[in-house]
Design goal:
With 476 residues, this protein is of the alpha+beta class. Helices cover 36% and strands 17% of the residues.
């Protein structure tokens, strides 16, 4: 089986096998730097606030995939749940209609899963619609639409994968991006210290009534927090710089192993075959880089063509650059103690006046105001339109419980808002590495009397990274 035809989980499994001896010999290569400068990391994506971040308790999210649950809320306010279910087709008809289903996934992005699903169904990924992209490192549920497929093909989908379909029904039309009300989150924030329940309730109710600054959070900028930098390179028309940075530039908080790999590849830049050998042990983490390198091996220094191998990435980078500028504008209001307008446009608007609001920062990044010309090769994947983003979000907090290991909280946010942005107003958020947090794993939905995820855990536990799978789910 070629790499192209393997599922992402198969690629991930291959990579883990490759890394096992490396982890045994050099465990330090797989730990993030301790005491990271949170303020500096925030600032790198345009986020600045007058608050002293160091006064917030440390909070660790996504220690276990079941610590972070996202359930989509449709325009009809109906919640898609992560509870287990079967891909069972009722009242099958030969009439060609759209199939709607709930997609429950673990440890994969919406884009990756829809590509895999399209391969299994032998259709174009464009025939699969969805309203929003859900977190990869989380347990998520969302509605999708599938057009031009016979129903029995769904029932033949493989069972041993890290996602499943349920709640199948027929209707017309198709889901489009943005067709949702918001998302319901149930999150376990682990802490090193015990929390003051009364203070937390006061802080939560204050945010609920006064709102929180609606920054675009880290997910918007990619794992290395460099998406906006790559976007700026493409928008400057410097395709060589964009390719080089994508292949070899490390992020501020990268694991040492990935920094070392990119540093090694950088020494061979231009020798595409040698670079590919460096990345070959990482068929999952470096899958897009390998696509680019395969193209460059065949086509020399055609950097524009190399970028076209990952068209979705180009669109994401352009969005990331606009998000960076939005964060800069919002930070300006916060630092100056000014009340922002209720909404702000994005910088990639097709209305020049809206774009010019960000002129100062666009110039600082050496991007021309007429950057459209440099994006023409990628127009099929980039949309220009006037989009207004709320400057503050007012969450609906459903329930919370302080446990000895931290905070479990359930809340709903409007579409486009980030749960991590909300939590950053309460905690200094870190990754999963800490010697001072406990491994105990709760069924956080059951804990808050909001359903359960035990059956889903049992179904998907084989797809949880080894260290995280060792913890038994606590159903008390």
């Amino acid at each position: 089986m070629t790499q192209e035809h393997k599922s992402n989980f198969e690629l991930w499994s291959e990579e883990q096998e490759f890394l096992k001896p490396v982890k045994r010999e050099h465990p330090e290569w797989f730990k993030h730097p301790k005491d990271a400068d949170i303020a500096a990391i925030y600032k790198s994506v345009g986020i600045e606030l007058p608050e002293d971040f160091n006064s917030f308790p440390k909070g660790y999210v996504k220690f276990h995939p079941f610590d972070f649950i996202v359930e989509e809320v449709g325009e009809d306010r109906k919640i898609t749940t992560v509870e287990n279910g079967e891909c069972k087709i009722e009242n099958y008809t030969e009439t060609p209609k759209t199939i709607y289903a709930t997609l429950v996934k673990l440890g994969a992005s919406t884009l990756d899963v829809t590509k895999e699903l399209a391969k299994y169904l032998s259709i174009d990924p464009k025939q699969i619609g969805y309203a929003g992209i859900k977190d990869a490192v989380a347990l998520t549920a969302q509605r999708i639409s599938i057009r031009g497929v016979r129903a029995e093909k769904l029932e033949a989908l493989p069972k041993n994968i890290n996602w499943f379909l349920k709640d199948i029904e027929y209707s017309n039309g198709a889901l489009n991006k943005g067709q949702l009300f918001g998302n319901k989150f149930t999150i376990f924030v682990r802490t090193e210290e015990s929390l003051d329940s009364e203070k937390l309730e006061k802080d939560l109710r204050k945010i609920e009534s006064e709102g929180f600054w609606n920054f675009f959070w880290f997910q918007r900028f990619g794992n290395r927090l460099l998406g906006h930098k790559m976007g700026a390179s493409v928008m400057r028309g410097n395709y060589t710089e964009a390719v080089r940075n994508y292949l070899v530039q490390s992020g501020m908080n990268d694991l040492p192993i990935y920094k070392a790999i990119r540093d090694q590849a950088n020494k061979s830049f231009g020798n595409w075959t040698a670079m590919k050998k460096v990345f070959m042990g990482f068929p999952f983490s470096m899958r897009n880089e390998l696509l680019m390198l395969d193209y460059l091996i065949e086509n020399g220094k055609d950097y524009q063509g190399a970028l076209k191998q990952v068209p979705e990435q180009i669109a994401i980078w352009v969005q990331a650059f606009s998000s960076f500028l939005f964060n800069k504008m919002l930070s300006k209001y916060a630092l100056e103690g000014q009340t922002p307008p209720n909404v702000l446009p994005i910088a990639s608007s097709n209305i020049r006046e809206e774009r010019e609001l960000y002129g100062k920062w666009i110039k600082e990044e050496r991007v021309p105001m007429g950057f459209d010309d440099h994006l023409k090769p990628f127009y099929l994947h980039i949309q220009y339109k006037s989009i207004k983003i709320p400057t503050k979000i007012y969450p609906k907090i459903h329930s919370f419980q302080v446990v000895p290991e931290g905070l479990v909280v359930s809340f709903t946010l409007d579409k486009g808002a980030y749960a991590t942005t909300f939590l950053s107003h309460l905690f200094r958020l870190y990754g999963i590495e800490s010697e001072n947090i406990k491994d105990i794993t709760y069924d956080i939905k059951a804990l808050l009397k909001n359903g359960n995820s035990v059956e889903t855990f049992e179904r998907l536990k084989n797809f949880i990274p080894e260290r995280q799978a060792e913890a038994e789910i606590n159903n008390t």
